[in-house]
From TrEMBL:
InterPro entries: Cu-oxidase-like_N, Cu-oxidase_C, Cu-oxidase_fam, Cu_oxidase_CS, Cu_oxidase_Cu_BS, Cupredoxin, TAT_signal. The keyword Lyase does not apply. Residues 148-174 are annotated as: Disordered. Keywords: Metal-binding, Oxidoreductase. The lineage of its organism: Bacteria, Pseudomonadati, Myxococcota, Polyangia, Nannocystales. Residues 171-255, 518-633 form the Plastocyanin-like domain. PROSITE patterns: MULTICOPPER_OXIDASE1, MULTICOPPER_OXIDASE2, TAT. Gene3D superfamilies: Cupredoxins - blue copper proteins. It holds the Pfam family Cu-oxidase_3. SUPFAM superfamilies: Cupredoxins. Residues 152-167 have a biased composition (Gly residues). This is Multicopper oxidase domain-containing protein.
Length: 649
């Protein structure tokens, strides 16, 4: 197999014809309203625990959306460099800035469109065809988005390439991955081996399955749910996703999905409100020693495996905003679609009520200086300390109803009463959770409780929920839901499609030597010419993922992601999870005892042959080589490769 650089159907670099200054996106020089304090940000670097910096609060913006009409959505999306402002930071980034709708419907009607971060939401239904021309309007490499990494000694820090580039050194070449979709991985579909260089374009076609055959003779639709799209250019994935090249991808199916019948962005009679929360993660260098300008972090800073360098701030944003305001009525039930499109830090979510005497009587927002946490990412003279359990116990009740686009059979009360591991409730980079919220009158903060790993991520307020006005009890939390037919349970192993046909073990490890850190799967880094996992079409397999502990690399969680087919987690460090949940992205746990951690799952491989990938969704780990090629085929699979050889391509 060779890296595929296909002829471009066209080289039109001009922005799409429809460009709107659209409600819901931060624009150049945009500012938010007043009154929010951003806690000290992540990284445990010097100064992180100083006085909070004032940042503004605004009503939640909703990204513009496009949807199919008569079974087709035909759009052109343009990528360019652009300048954005988030809180007090203004910097250059890459973004989906142009959108032209050739066939379909748009939330902005006939208005013009300009996008920043996140990109437009794409809404489809089972049976739809998405035709998407991706136009790469980026300049050649060494652009303003990737300045020399002066703060890290000329770009050599962390073992990365010079000039602030990552391992690929082609940061303005790109492609497109539909994360979580069960679609054909081959061209012109979800082909992550494609390269679209600056000035080139490519016509993608994605067919969303409807009435596809299942092993027991029944038919299934693609699951309705919450997915997303992002670049998957090996060597440059992290730098592009971290800059905000992401967007929601929603599959709707009111015919078969209970949640879609009950909730809508524009609810009708008997329906509840649906809100989209695209959580992104920015790593910003505020003390660039080259020119003093604020900029996105380079790979050298992003890949730092310890306290972050001075001036580097790592923080979450929601729909391109810092701490937006969501509004509800007492007793009202809302559906929150939360997408974790960050590149590195796991999300540990809770809803904390603000004491009445700490809420401003005029605005209902928390008073300036109010701190919901009472702890920080660094302890004076000692290791980082996060008392997450105490705060999680204070969280208002909410209900999780889907993970990674797959609806449960019943709502899951959160926080979990008896989890066997944080793997069950922490949302990894790339993961999605649909939740139902219903609160009493008051002010609540949706928070990320922070996370300890090889880098310490500080706690942060994600959004503020103001619950006020006349009570609304027209809708209650449903007690029973219908899981998607594409992912039937394994409760009865004698049913067609449930008998295990193969087992395999895959080992993730970080080794450190004089040459730096090495991110390995089965002892090897990614190779474009090597098939690591060969799987028979229609196989049913049990996988064991091993998170190797090493004396040099220590231990760290790895968010495992595999394309095309989701999996059912059956064991976490040898224990059965408290809830059987299907996922396409899941943390591989550490053992906590200087031993290997393990995760087991079951998965089916129907419908699609071809090559795709599995990888760590800490995206700089992926770019450094923590990825493998999977091939599903009907023919007999060859023996697995041995050694770390890689043929040049």
């Amino acid at each position: 197999m060779t890296l595929q650089k296909r002829p471009s159907p066209g080289n039109d670099r001009s922005p799409a014809a429809l460009t709107i200054d659209r409600r819901g996106f931060l624009k150049v020089g945009a500012t938010l309203g007043a009154g929010f304090l951003l806690p000290g940000l992540t990284g445990c670097s010097p100064g992180d625990d100083g006085d909070p910096r004032p940042v503004a609060n605004g009503e939640l913006f909703t990204p513009a959306s496009v949807r199919s009409r008569d079974g087709v959505l035909d759009i052109e999306v343009t990528i360019t460099e652009t300048e954005v402002t988030v809180g007090q930071y203004t910097f250059m980034t890459r973004a989906y800035t142009g959108l032209k709708v050739l066939r379909g419907e748009a939330s902005f009607g006939d208005a013009t469109y300009t996008g920043v971060v996140p990109g437009p939401s794409i809404e489809l239904r089972p049976g739809d065809r998405l035709k998407l021309k991706l136009i790469n309007g980026l300049p050649d490499d060494n652009s303003a988005v990737d300045p020399p990494d002066c703060a890290m000694g000329g770009g050599s820090g962390g073992g990365h390439g010079a000039g602030g580039h990552g391992p690929g050194t082609h940061n303005n070449s790109t492609n497109l991955h539909t994360h979580g979709l069960h679609v054909d991985p081959g061209p012109p579909g979800d082909d992550v081996f494609l390269i679209i260089g600056p000035g080139e374009s490519y016509d993608f076609v994605f067919d969303i399955p409807r009435d596809i055959a299942m092993p027991d003779g029944s038919k299934a639709n693609h699951p309705a749910g919450t997915y997303w799209y992002h670049p998957h250019m090996h060597g440059s994935t992290a730098i592009q996703v971290a800059g905000g090249m992401v967007g929601a991808l929603i599959i709707r199916d009111e015919e078969r999905d209970d949640l879609d019948r009950l909730f809508s962005p524009e609810p009708g009679p008997g329906q509840g409100k649906e809100q989209l929360l695209v959580v992104g993660e920015y790593m910003i260098q505020t003390q660039d020693s080259c020119d003093g300008k604020t900029r996105l972090a380079t790979y050298g800073e992003m890949g730092h495996s310890g306290p972050l360098p001075p001036g580097v701030e790592d923080f979450f944003h929601v729909n391109g905003q810092i701490d937006p305001v969501l509004r509800m009525r007492p007793g009202e039930v809302q559906r929150l679609r939360l997408l974790h499109t960050g590149f590195r830090a796991p999300l540990d979510v809770a809803f904390l009520r603000v004491p009445d005497d700490q809420a401003d009587t005029a605005t209902s927002l928390p008073k300036p200086g109010y701190d919901p946490f009472g702890y920080s990412c660094a302890a004076s003279g000692g290791p980082p300390m996060l008392d997450r359990d105490a705060l999680r116990a204070k969280s208002a009740t909410y209900y999780q109803v889907a993970t990674d686009g797959i609806t449960y059979g019943a709502p899951l009360k959160m926080p979990l009463a008896d989890p066997v591991s944080e793997v069950e409730y922490v949302i990894p980079p790339g993961g999605r959770v649909d939740m139902l919220v219903q609160f009493e009158a008051g002010t609540y903060q949706m928070v990320a409780l922070g996370y300890l790993d090889f880098v310490c991520w500080a706690p942060q307020v994600l959004a503020t929920v103001v619950v006020s006005g006349k009570p609304d009890t027209s809708l209650q939390i449903p007690q029973v839901l219908t899981p998607p037919a594409l992912y039937p349970s394994f409760d009865d192993m004698s049913k067609p499609g449930n008998a295990i046909t193969n087992t395999r073990q895959v080992e993730f490890a970080v080794n450190v030597d004089a040459d730096g850190a090495h991110f390995l799967i089965d002892g090897r880094t990614f190779c474009m010419s090597r098939i690591d996992q060969c799987i028979a079409l229609d196989a049913v397999e049990e996988w064991t993922l091993v998170n190797k502990f090493s004396d040099t690399g220590g231990e760290t969680v790895h968010p495992f992601h595999i394309h095309v087919n989701s999996f059912l987690v059956t064991s976490i460090n040898g224990k059965s999870p408290s809830q059987a949940i299907w996922r396409d992205t899941c943390l591989i746990p550490t053992s906590g005892t200087n031993a290997d951690g393990t995760l087991k799952f079951l998965s089916r491989f129907p419908h699609f042959q071809g090559q795709y990938v599995l990888h760590c969704h800490i995206l700089e780990h992926e770019d450094e080589g923590m990825m493998q090629i999977v091939e599903v085929q009907q023919a007999t699979c060859p023996p697995p490769p041995t050694g770390d050889t890689c043929e040049a391509v």
